Amino acid sequence: MKSLQEQLMGAGLVDNKKVKAIKQAQRKQKKQQQKAPKGQQEIDENKLRLERERLEKVERDRELNRQREAQVQERAIAAQIKQLIESNRIEAEQDDVGYQFADGKKIQKIYISSRLVEQLSRGQLSIAKLEDRYHLIPNGVAEKIAQRNADAIIPVKVEQDQVSDDDPYADYKIPDDLMW
Fold first, then answer.
1. What is the mean pLDDT of residues 86-93?
2. 169 located within any domain
């Protein structure tokens, strides 16, 4: 069976020059098609790499923005706490009564009046720490501060007037002014 090309030559529709020109054009086209995917592949790889780098940069920028926003938020909270403490602190009358409390693992002592010691022991006042100083503040303000930063409020033991029925020392109340 003859190929289409041989049939066309036999019929006289195509001559040898035309056949050679067509074959040459087909070879050039085939070579260009083989080269194009490699070049196209390199371009695609570069585009993908650039896109990936751009996305990584965007993610880094987002993370930096989140960190900056968190720092701004922390500063705003610290400023609110400072303002609440300074505007609501109770000026402690310096007296000879020392009140001891635990700040973390350390025992601290402040000298205040017996009236303020009584209010602290009843739970009407709280102790707040601001810049390594201790301030007495009302409980309502202490709750607002604790919502923002619980570390700024020093926990104070509050007397419980509840006595169990089987307590043998129920008749002996510990005096408020007992100092260790």
1. 83
2. no
Per the domain annotation, does 180 fall within a domain? no
Which among 123, 117, 119, 118 is positioned nearest to 100, based on CA atoms?
117
H or E element in which residue 62 lies: helix 16-88
Q: Is residue 19 part of a domain?
A: yes
What are the tens digits of pLDDT across the range 70-82? Answer: 999 999 999 999 9
User: What pTM was computed for the model?
Assistant: 0.56
Range of the domain at 148: 90-154
Average pLDDT over residues 142-148: 89
- Confidence grade of residue 161 (pLDDT, cut at 50, 70, 90): low
| Region class of 129: left (phi > 0), else alpha (psi between -120 and 50), else beta | beta
Tell me, what amino acid is at 10? Answer: G
All residues at 6 or more sequence positions from 111 whose CB lies less than 8 Å from its CB, including other chains: 92, 94, 95, 96, 97, 98, 99
Domain co-membership, 100 together with 135: yes
Q: Hey, what's the torsion of the CAs at 115, 118, 122, 126, to 10 degrees?
A: 70
**Which residues, in sequence order, are bridge partners of residue 84?**
none
Are the CB atoms for 153 and 100 separated by under 8 Å? no
